[in-house]
UniProtKB/TrEMBL annotation:
SUPFAM superfamilies: CheY-like, Methylesterase CheB, C-terminal domain
Catalytic activity line of the entry: [protein]-L-glutamate 5-O-methyl ester + H2O = L-glutamyl-[protein] + methanol + H(+); L-glutaminyl-[protein] + H2O = L-glutamyl-[protein] + NH4(+)
Chain positions with 4-aspartylphosphate modification: D58
Main location class: cytoplasm
PTM annotation: Phosphorylated by CheA. Phosphorylation of the N-terminal regulatory domain activates the methylesterase activity.
Cell location: Cytoplasm
Protein task: Involved in chemotaxis. Part of a chemotaxis signal transduction system that modulates chemotaxis in response to various stimuli. Catalyzes the demethylation of specific methylglutamate residues introduced into the chemoreceptors (methyl-accepting chemotaxis proteins or MCP) by CheR. Also mediates the irreversible deamidation of specific glutamine residues to glutamic acid.
Protein name according to UniProt: Protein-glutamate methylesterase/protein-glutamine glutaminase
Residues in CheB-type methylesterase domain copies: 156-348
Amino acid sequence: MSAPKIKVLCVDDSALIRDLMTEIINAHDDMEVVATAPDPLVARDLIKRTNPDVLTLDVEMPRMDGIDFLERLMRLRPMPVLMVSSLTQAGSEVTLKALELGAVDFIAKPQLGIRSGMLEYSEMIADKLRAAARSRPRAAPRRDAPRAATPVRAPLISSEKLIIIGASTGGTEAIRQVLEPLPANSPAILITQHMPGGFTRSFAERLDRLCRIQVKEAEEGERVLPGHAYIAPGDRHLKLARSGANYVVRLDDGEPVNRHRPSVDVLFHSAAVNAGRNAVGALLTGMGRDGAAGLLEMRQAGAHTLAQSEETCVVYGMPREAVALGAAVDIVDLDQMASRIMQLVAASGRAQRV
């Protein structure tokens, strides 16, 4: 007996987008659009009637803003939501807010040639819907909930130490939860998060406002410094390299790896080659297998490696693949990841000084 189809409700004020999403989704045998809505008020009644597995939600709509609707929805009836966003600075900032409120992932509308562009995204949209249907919905955080993370204690750390992080679906909030508690003198951090160009700069700027460390979008050739986190620009691979005694950033326009550019495997491989046992690698929530083989390379090069626990992942795909390969030394809950990383960095430093 075949599995039931994934039921999708599409909410968008554009009739063209509603029609395109219906065409794309219904072309896949394992999913179907059960209803469409031009605004959140119509969607509210359709959710009750159709009980969808996944909601696609436009960011900007009449009658009720998509963000306001999402926040109410995730408090009253948490469910998998895939945002549909414009590829603009404003669109990226609003999308990051949606991910903070509990949206699983997002689809970026092409700026030109919407029909042809959306149809090119057909397989990616289907993959994101499948991942969303398997995800763990998160209730929206309370407005009055404390946001400041309890800082992790800062041991004396060698500037040779590095933290290398990879993530995909659900990763923007997971990365925030890892970085926020880190002390200002944390080892340097290199991060690959699957995200299109135009979004990573806003992501870095948002994290920089929230964290004690400095967070920025990585730039070609810059020196990798303690107390800084470097995020792979959308559409470019991030690599760690050496220049004399220093670590430096290398950016690469090479072919996608595991269908991704930036790819976590590319970053992890470069860390295995150039940092070895001086690195701690962490693979966080995400669909697919990108990063699993690279994390194994890091472990084989002497790095301590971590995978996020299934219970705390939005999508337990990449970490599961890493665990199956034997790539992860530890499996760690997300709320313990920052403290565990710092413990390992400190222990590694003590071992090397003995």
